[in-house]
Amino acid sequence: MLDQQLETAKAASLLTLLRLSGGGEQVFQARELTAILSHELRAPLRSALGDFAPELAQVVERLPADTQIPRSLEDLLCQSRPSLELLGLAKRFAKSCCGPAESALPRELGLVLYYLTIAVARIRRGVRLSELSDEALAGGLQWSSEQKWIEEPLRSLVNEALTQFSRENNLDGGGK
After folding, report:
1. For a disulfide at 70, which of 5, 56, 75, 104, Cβ 3.0-4.6 Å?
2. CB atoms within 10 A of CB 111
């Protein structure tokens, strides 16, 4: 019971972070967020994951020989059957960018990547990477779909995930 209450409180806290435009001063303009996200998505995976690069090397070493190693975060998110270990590592990196402390990316980008890694694991592998509720995940995907600075192919991926979660859970919303 207490665990469920704590998880609900965590989800509520993350949704509060999503309301960045209400009252909080945004440091980056939309065009800057687009450029930063584009760079992060296309950078070599080792560079994109920053402090998580040493762990990336260990994960890659453990992957089966026939696993297609993604070159970038974009490749990872767009693979039809991405590695769950790599998605989990990318999720941890994204979550590290969502807190109030200095991070490798603007918080908005961390949030989008956080929700997308969880959603990709669910829609492409049928696995939960997080205890985040479906409603909280759908809320995060809905917020992501409303961000004008997200470009293709991520926009389509966000909308695909949002549509699937809405359909599976009879949630309001759906892709835009």
Report:
1. 75
2. 24
